[in-house]
Structures are given as C-alpha cells and as structure tokens.
Hints:
This protein has strands at 3-7, 10-13, 18-25, 34-39, 46-51, 58-60, 68-73, 78-83, 92-98, 108-113. The protein is an all-beta fold and 114 residues long. The protein has a six-stranded mixed β-sheet, with no helix packed on it.
Amino acid sequence: xxxxxxxxxxxxxxxxxxxxxxxxxxxxxxxxxxxxxxxxxxxxxxxxxxxxxxxxxxxxxxxxxxxxxxxxxxxxxxxxxxxxxxxxxxxxxxxxxxxxxxxxxxxxxxxxxx
Length: 114
C-alpha cells in the first residue's frame, strides 16, 4: 500500500534552515508528481511545492518562492524540501503527498521561533 514517511522537522530560529525528507513506497514513484503541503494551527492545509516525475517542472507557493527548494531522488524514492530563510509564518505540520493519490503521511512538525 502507499506509504509516505516524512522526517526532518524541528525547532529553528527565524532566518534558519531545515531540510525535510519523505520516503515513499507502494507505488511507481518515478512516474508521479510529488508535492509538499503544510497546515498551520487553525488554518487549512495548503500546497507549498510540487515537482514533476523527472524533476523538469517545479512549482512553489508565492509565500515560499525563493526560499524553499523541492527536489527528488527517483533512485531512492525520496522527495525533499530544503527550507531556507525560515519565518515564524512557516510554522506548520509539513506533509508530502502524491499529487494524484489521496494518501497522506503522518507529517513532520516545523516550528520557527522569532
């Protein structure tokens, strides 16, 4: 079955960096577009970034453009999110997701202190 396991979250000061990783299994990873979402307390889950199957197309939410970088390794079935210049508004639980499948992982908490 589809499994998505996020890791790499933590507590960081504003201006700092974190790198999130998602290990995927149970589907043809190299054939699908992968995404990162986040959900802050009291807010709806929002799309942060996406990357096409062969990494040719990457899209970002305006709020993270220029600060976050999505990447993937199809040999390891992983997708990553490098987050730089973090802001307190980036505090959220971060999830990876296959764009066209309904499954979610457990998420990883990112907390940015001011």
